[in-house]
Specification:
15 helices
Length: 278
């Protein structure tokens, strides 16, 4: 980490601790949907009514329910049918994750571009993660998908900070370096504040720790491998990483020398999964 990035990091952490920069809050629609899902009195009908108050979000949940991954015999045309096919918890995690897209907007063109890039990459990682979880593990695909959607949520306060400190906009390379250095630490702080389950809240801090060796495959393993696969063929530094050194592949059951992207069926499933989230 450069001395300038280290200096800005200290300023940013201090600003967060002193509440000069407020951590993002979970969108109101996401809170309402999560409350509805956690209400023991909720059934499919009542949950669908709550979800239905947001037409755009409902449409996207219906699209996922009709995606090839769900293998429905016939298309669903309303949010109640979608919730019935997916289940309340799956629908909740999907809706909560997708609702966060509204947070990735900014007034500065440079910041807005980065926010859109981060969200687009997050949906790609989430789509790949859901397919890997469903194909190779017994982990819940909806939880893994949600983890993929939020694995870079820690970039948001950094980008907001840059909007206030225009000096950062003069050197976008420093800004990008700052995001890479800090998004994990801040992301975990945000997800803890939002009361996300620990297995999801730790993902931003751990998905780049290629030396980690949990006793069994977990959500972080899936997001880690999905993130690596998302960079295949790009100029990103992670595209040149030696996958044989990443033990997560073995825990998932993937040969690190053969990308799952090279398997036609999986490649199609991943493309469909990503498209459904976009």
């Amino acid at each position: 980490m450069s001395s300038l990035v280290d200096e800005i990091r200290a300023q940013l952490i201090e600003a967060i601790k002193n509440n000069r920069i407020v951590l993002p809050t979970l969108p109101e629609v996401a809170l309402r949907i999560r409350d509805a899902a956690e209400d023991p009195r909720s059934d499919i009908a009542s949950f669908a009514r709550e979800l239905g108050f947001d037409a755009a979000l409902s449409a996207r949940v219906i699209r996922v329910a009709n995606s090839p991954l769900m293998r429905g015999n016939s298309p669903v045309t309303d949010v109640k049918g979608a919730a019935a096919r997916l289940g309340i918890q799956y629908s909740c995690n999907l809706a909560v994750g997708l609702a966060m897209e509204q947070m990735f907007q900014a007034t500065s063109d440079a910041i807005d571009e980065r926010m859109r890039q981060i969200w687009a990459h997050s949906t790609e990682v989430a789509g790949i993660s859901a397919v890997l979880a469903r194909t190779y593990t017994r982990l819940k695909p909806d939880q893994v998908m949600l983890a993929g959607l939020v694995h870079r949520i820690g970039a948001l306060p950094i980008l907001r900070f840059a909007e206030e400190d225009r000096n950062l906009l003069k050197d976008l390379d420093v800004l990008d370096e700052l995001i890479e250095a800090l998004h994990g630490e801040i992301g975990k702080l945000i997800l803890d504040t939002w009361a996300f389950p620990p297995e999801i809240a730790t993902v931003p801090l751990s998905y780049l720790d290629f030396a980690r060796k949990p006793a069994a495959v977990d959500i972080t393993d899936i997001v880690m491998v999905a993130n690596l696969q998302s960079y295949m063929g790009s100029s990103h530094p992670l595209a040149t990483l030696d996958w044989t050194t990443v033990s997560a592949f073995g825990r998932i059951g993937l040969d690190p020398n053969v990308s799952s992207m090279e398997a036609e069926d999986l490649s199609e499933a991943m493309a469909a999964s990503i498209a459904a989230l976009q």
